[in-house]
Amino acid sequence: MLKMNEVSKIYRTDLIETHALSNVNLSIDEGEFIAVTGPSGSGKTTFLNIAGLLERFERGDYYLDGENVANLNDKKLSQLRNEKIGFIFQGFNLISDLSLYDNVEVPLIFRGIKASERKKRIEEALELVGLASRMKHYPAQLSGGQQQRVAIARALAGKPRFLLADEPTGNLDSLMARQVMDLLQEVNQAGTTLIMVTHDNELARRAGRNIQILDGELTDITKSQLTDLAV
Amino acid sequence: MAIKHILSLILKQKSIALLIILQIAITVMIVSNTAFISYATLQNWLIPSKLEERQILNVTTRVFDTSTDVPALIEKDIQAIEKVPGVIAASYAGRELVLNSLGPGWTIFKDTQPETDYRVFGYFGLDEKGADVLGLELVEGRKFYASEYIKGDETTKNAGVMMISEELAKSLFGDSSALGQSVYISRQRIAHQVIGVYKGKMLGEGATYSQQPYHSGIVPEVIWGNRQRVNYLVRVEAGVSERVLEDVETALYHTDGRMVDRVEFVGRAKKRLWDGRSTFALTMAGISLIACVVTALGIVALVSFSVSLRKKDHGILRALGASKGQVMWSLIKENTILVFIGLVLGFGLSILLYYFLMHNVRVQSVVEIPLLVGVAIFTWLVSTLAVYVPAKEAAKVSPAQVTKSS
Ligand SMILES: Nc1ncnc2c1ncn2[C@@H]1O[C@H](COP(=O)(O)OP(=O)(O)O)[C@@H](O)[C@H]1O
Ligand SMILES: [Mg+2]
């Protein structure tokens, strides 16, 4: 359902060219849980951004559910992002001036879902992450772990096929990290494809498949290789 | 984004929102009063004089030599004017046509009962040729008989007969004929019998020189009194050149003891009547333009600032699947809410300014709902154009920036 052929991404500034991704070939099946590891600056975020249609790429083809996204316009890309992909970021990225309820609601409005259906989905999603009782609260009133759970609820309310998480536990202490990880794993077991970038080998071991990026090059690795290469 | 989300965001930036609302309210106040005043001025402009504005001249002169034989002067002047090429006829006029100003005593009644309503009224004394010079068309009755004209110095006599306009006749007597009825001029109720009714002529009907429309009547009187003014009405051929004005002035110029103040088409006199007011309307239009530019720039600056503070939020919206258009649209909606609040406030201020101008500056102005609707649409358009610039910037925020900055 996700297939990349020879995808490359180059950042050009006045002084240098950075080959953030080189000739990525990858195929991911529905329902997989993939952990992406690799040293800092190796291209993990770039890979996730491209997979999540947040950034364009220079070369190659990328098929999402059989559709080549290389030449789609902004409107179509936004729509695919909204409908098929759920994001979870290291920095949570909640809108601080909106309540938890409203934060979860925003992407549903962009999709044009009816008010009654929105209400049902928001309540279900916040219930799932254990924050239903606090939906009138604002992000600043919550702990980091709770904020990340709201972000997960926001991603899940859209019923995405893919969940993309960029170091979702990077800003959390280990207890909260484990709780968030448990939640993500539950979601994956319920059928959602999960691609997660992480520094944490212990968390990476929970994945069904491990991928490593080194200098923009992507390789499948076994669990035993994790300890040796992680930075 | 739904309205409630936008409201939440507005409430977090109260001071920016308040500044935008205030700017819009003040602009609306100025622009709507400009519209009111311009509209009232235009309405005045469009009142038909029902005169051949380029075929009738107003001639005003002043006799400063008190020993002048006025009747002889008038006779000589009329002969001289009628010799000018292009002139058809000249007649003595007791008062200036069009520019005649009304005093508080200018009223007409239909009886002598103390409680009767009056009509605001201006009347003109003309000689035998006056009716033709004006091009009067009788609807009912007759013209004056030669024997009815009274001429002379200050006189306590009055002709006792008059012609009134069709509108005045309707206003006083409704559907029944005004012919043979008595009408009473001014508070002294000087009786005149109506012998003719003419089809609306002269600016009188509906003209609002002192903020009040007035009716007109004509009496067969050539009374120069002890006033120094000796005025004429002149009918000229259609399409005559402007030179006729100079020629008439030259014809009168040589008489000693008298000066010629003005020779002009009544169309020019009519224009002058409204000049002052259109100047006011133009001044207001200028202020409006400045207000709109200042507000538009203010909105550009304030919204740019507000957008720069919310750059991260816009990136999040993009990452969550908002298209560029949706991000722009959410900012335009936000602005529309502010415009709406500003409009409500602005309309309140508009009415206050309207009453202030009416009572303190005595301008002519009129509150019209369609004008307010127009101002509302105009304000929204201007502010939306202004928001468009920073909104476009906001939409350029890369959705990837939310993953790069954690
Ligand atoms: N917008 C950008 N402009 C220029 N270079 C960039 C940009 N984003 C990332 N890079 C570079 O691309 C490389 C990969 O970055 P990134 O994908 O963020 O790495 P990781 O997430 O693995 O730490 C790095 O060298 C980084 O400096
Ligand atoms: Mg990264």
Textual characterization of the structure:
The complex is a heterodimer of chains A (231) and B (406). With 231 residues, chain A is α/β, with parallel strands linked by helices. Chain A is built from 8 helices and 10 strands. A 6-stranded mixed β-sheet of chain A has the order 6-7-8-3-9-10, with helices on both faces. The longest helix of chain A has 16 residues, at 174-189. The mean pLDDT of chain A is 92. Chain B is α+β, with helices and mostly antiparallel strands. Chain B has 2 domains: 3-46 and 274-404, no CATH class; 56-270, no CATH class. Chain B is built from 11 helices and 13 strands. In chain B, strands 3-4-10-7-9-8 form a 6-stranded mixed barrel. In chain B, strands 2-12-1-13 form a 4-stranded antiparallel β-sheet. Chain B has a two-stranded parallel sheet with strand order 6-11. In chain B, strand 8 (182-185) and strand 9 form a beta hairpin. Chain B is elongated, with a radius of gyration of 32 Å. The interface between A and B is medium-sized, with 37 and 29 residues. The structure holds adenosine-5'-diphosphate and magnesium ion (MG). Residues 11, 13, 18, 20, 38, 40-46 of chain A line the site of adenosine-5'-diphosphate. Residues 44-45 of chain A line the site of magnesium ion (MG). Chain B: The chain crosses the membrane at residues 16-42, 280-305, 337-357, 369-389. Chain B: Residues 287-399 form the ABC3 transporter permease C-terminal domain. Chain B: This is Putative ABC transport system permease protein. Chain B: It is found in: Cell membrane. Chain B: GO terms for molecular function: transmembrane transporter activity.
